[in-house]
Specification:
The chain has 243 residues and is mainly α. It is built from 9 helices and no strands. α5 runs antiparallel to α8 and α6 packs antiparallel against α7. The N and C termini lie far apart (49 Å).
């Protein structure tokens, strides 16, 4: 089974599994709220409300991790990749962030889920709630960064970056719930949709495999390099010393 087929199967599983389950839950409980959503949102919001310093820190984090922040980073990264000749990878990055962001905006309008309402708010957010744009775009950015850096870092660096990326994504999701602007299902749906988009575009682009190449990325180049070296050694042996 090819890598592209595997990516596509993961994307379909994410959409038909957790994303469909979360969406069904949200639709069936509307205009009310699933009790787990209410309990988690109420507990975190109350905890932060009693701690003004923490509330301020979370508001700042929410501003730093706006979807547009990740889009600008992706745009700059794509420009650098294009300049270095990695045009297929740059196109994949832009398409992934673009499709994910557009889907998030569209689905908010489709489901039109109201944001949580509180007698005393920590912050105010406009628009609809499902899915969370912060959660979706942070997961998209983290996923793209992992895919890109996985090509150049060793095992130790890979583990470190995976941990940092997961920490960022979790922190952003927690921030949205604790500030009282999203429910748990909003955040989970954003994460799931982002991963589905990521695997879909990987299946469509397979960005790190050269057109017409077979086998894992990089292997074909290494094989050609070794073959060229062998031919050069053979030619030198045939020519003899002094040539």
């Amino acid at each position: 089974m090819s890598r592209r087929v595997q990516y596509a199967m993961v994307a379909v599983a994410l959409l038909l599994g957790p994303f469909t389950a979360l969406t069904t839950l949200v639709v069936l409980t509307a205009p009310g709220v699933f009790f787990v959503d209410a309990d988690v949102a109420g507990g975190l919001h109350g905890f932060v409300l009693d701690r003004p310093a923490l509330a301020t820190a979370l508001r700042v984090l929410g501003l730093i991790t706006l979807p547009d922040t990740f889009r600008v980073i992706a745009l700059v990264s794509a420009g650098l990749l294009w300049w270095r000749g990695r045009r297929r990878v740059a196109a994949w990055l832009l398409v992934t962030m673009g499709i994910g962001g557009a889907l998030g905006v569209m689905l908010k309008q489709v489901f039109a889920r109201s944001r949580p309402e509180w007698p005393e708010s920590i912050t105010v957010a406009s628009g609809y709630s499902y899915p969370s744009g912060h959660a979706l775009n942070s997961m998209l950015a983290a996923g793209c960064a992992i895919v890109l850096l996985d090509q150049i870092v060793g095992p130790a660096g890979r583990r470190l970056f995976w941990t940092a990326a997961a920490g960022l994504v979790l922190l952003v999701g927690l921030d949205r719930i604790a500030l009282g602007v999203h429910y748990l299902t909003d955040v989970l749906a954003g994460w799931t949709l982002a991963l589905a988009v990521l695997f879909t575009t990987l299946a469509a682009f397979d960005p790190f495999t050269a057109p017409g190449a077979t086998g894992p990325p990089g292997r074909a180049r290494g094989t050609r390099g070794r073959s060229t070296a062998k031919r050069a050694d053979y030619s030198s042996a045939q020519a003899g010393p002094g040539e």
